[in-house]
Amino acid sequence: MKKVELLSPAGSLEKLKIAFDFGADAVYGGVSHFSLRIRSGKEFSMEDFKEGIEYAHERGKKVYVTINGFPFNSQLSLLKKHIIAMAELNPDAFIVATPGVLKLCHELAPGMPLHLSTQANVMNVLDAQIYHEMGATRIITAREISLKDLKAIKAELPDLELEVFVHGSMCFAYSGRCLISTLQSGRVPNRGSCANDCRFEYEMYAANPDTGTLFRLEEEEGVGTYIMNAKDLNLASHMQEILDSGVVDSVKIEGRTKTAYYAATTAKAYRMAIDDYYDGKIDSDRYQYELQSLQNRGYTDAYLVSRPFERNDTQSLDFSMQLGTHQVSGIVNAEGTHFLCKYKTLPNDEMEVVFPLGSEVEIVDNETGSTYERDGKFFMQLKHIKAKNGKILPEIHSGNTNEIELPTSFPAYTFFRVPANSNMGTNPKH
């Protein structure tokens, strides 16, 4: 049986490796301003991206290249060179957004699988059919689509792969077709430089041009003024319905500009949800425990499993971002021997260990520290904080570049975390 693909964001080489290590089957990312996430494109050099593709292929994984910006005429010659250069790296597909770029990729990179970006706003059989006839092998459907419409497309076009977003930021506008950022700051969303103006708090005013009167409208207490701020998508608890449909080929996580911890945690949570589905068991609490640890704007299940007019929980009106349940306190290096501090840490602070599925951590109690299991979770405490240079530190803070010795080896890129409301340094005991 062909299993659904888990597709994660790769905003850098490190995040690419982390996503794969924590369960992703494929990742997507880009180099240069032809990607819709310029910030993440700057994190990748051509050399890094080539290394990432090789890393993926050595593990039987895939990398999809984002060339999904909307180019100006003045950029077309550069775009052609970019398409050729990216094809030479031997990725597994290109993600493109416009008919013209789709045609250009066919001409310059014949044989390259082409995935149509969600920016193309495919919502129905007619549009899907046109793009399929133009050579798209997969369509990343609009975030506003329903499972019912996905079934209709698949029934008509059984050979066309369908990809859906299951987690991450949602756009206030229709599938990202927004110009608010362009109007307010000159940053063009569909060319990769959205300033996220929809996340701002706004004040509402009423004006009378005849009298020159201007007064501020008072909002109802508790309603808030984040009037365009969409909640984040979270469909981990709906994997049963999504996969029971039999029409989804790939489930996608948004977030190339988000943290390495986000890349790890989302990949792990959705890997668990997918594997549990095929094993005939569902444990939503387990997936949500991981996802709730992330910073978020509140979560919604949006439109895939419900009709739009039934949705009344898609906006966060009184805040832009909230802390998750946990704070990342450290990340293990690639060798698994030391970690870098991400949050103030003192000796005897208890840190939960977050490592890739299928990995093991040795239970130890030695002069450096201890590892132990409690209620199905792993924890670590350091008896002293010893830097790689041998210096003993009374405490360590985020931003300190000293690598700290571990009591035992851990899988590469293992994370340590603590409850967000905890006061590190209180030395909780196990």
UniProtKB/TrEMBL annotation:
Domain of life: Bacteria
Keyword set includes Hydrolase: yes
Keywords: Hydrolase, Protease
InterPro entries attached to this UniProt entry: Peptidase_U32, RNA/ubiquinone_mod_enzymes
Transmembrane parts of this sequence: none
Gene Ontology MF terms in the entry: peptidase activity
Keyword set includes Amino-acid biosynthesis: no
Pfam assignment, any one: Peptidase_U32
Protein family membership: Belongs to the peptidase U32 family.
Protein's name in the database: Collagenase-like protease
Organism: Sulfurimonas aquatica
